[in-house]
Amino acid sequence: MMKLFLILMLVKTSYEDTVVITKTLKEELSVGTFVLDLKKETNLMNTSSNDFQWVAKEEFEQYFSLENGIIRINKRLDREQMCPGLVECLKRIRVMSKKTMLLITIDFSIEDINDNSPIFNISDMKTNISESAQLGVFYQLHPAEDLDSP
Q: Signal sequence span per UniProt (predicted)?
C-alpha cells in the first residue's frame, strides 16, 4: 500500500503544486519545541490533522516528530555534528498531504549558538615582552580551535 502511495505521489506531484516553507531554527532547541503547524502554513485548514505524512524517511527527519499536522523537535539539533565545517547548515524534509496530494518541502537553516569553548593545544603559554618593546608590535600566539566556526 505504501509503495502504491509513493508511486501515485510521484506521478501526481509532477502536475500538482508544491509548497516550499523556509524556516530558521537555532541549534540546541529543547525536545518538544514547536516548529510549525502544517495546516496553517499551507492554508489546508479543512484537512484533518492526521492527513500529513513524511514522503520518504530521511536521516534528517529523526530530529522532528510529525503529529496531527504539527512538527516539533524530536531530537537535539547539533549544528557542528549535522554540518561539520560548513558555513551554512541547510537541511530539507518533505511532507505530503494524503488528501490533497500536496507536496510540502520544508527547508531548514540551522543557526549556530556559541556552545563550544575554544580549545588550545597548549594549556600554558609564557611570553616575555621587554619593557622597551615598541607600541604596536604583534606577538604570535598559538591558535585556538573553535568548533563553532567552520
A: 1-16
Residues in Cβ contact with 101 at an 8 Å cutoff, skipping those fewer than 6 apart? 8, 9, 12, 13, 16
Domain count, the chain: 1
Q: Which residue has the higher pLDDT, 123 or 21?
A: 21
**Dihedral angle of Cα 13, 19, 22, 23, to the nearest 10 degrees:** -100
User: How does pLDDT run across 52-110, given as a tens digit for each residue?
Assistant: 899 877 788 889 999 989 999 999 998 888 888 888 999 999 999 888 888 999 999 99
SS3 20: strand
**Among residues 16, 148, 21, 31, which one has the least CA distance to residue 92?**
21
Domain range for 97 is 2-111
**At residue 26, what is the residue type?**
K
